[in-house]
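User: Predict the structure for this protein chain, please.
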Amino acid sequence: EPEPDVEPTWQEIEDPRISEQKPADPKWWRIAFSDPILDELIEVALKENLTLRSAGLRVLQSQQQLAIAIGEQYPQQQQITGLAGRGKEEGITS
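Assistant: Here is the predicted structure, written as structure tokens:
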């Protein structure tokens, strides 16, 4: 493994807790808390956790829904075409 460059004045460079510490177990909470309810809650959260892309798309979706809701508060313009509109152009009166 290549050795990373470390600032020589870093105070804890020789601290054995930092240099010899193993990575934490991904399920460390099981040992630390021994709580079956917490275990179940975390498992459910991990199963239902969104990817970053999915979360971002949900944010965009909610922003668009808000824009639609705001837009519906203002008067809408609609083009109405029918016999009344054509009659004036063709010289037909009612």
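Residues 34-72 form one domain.
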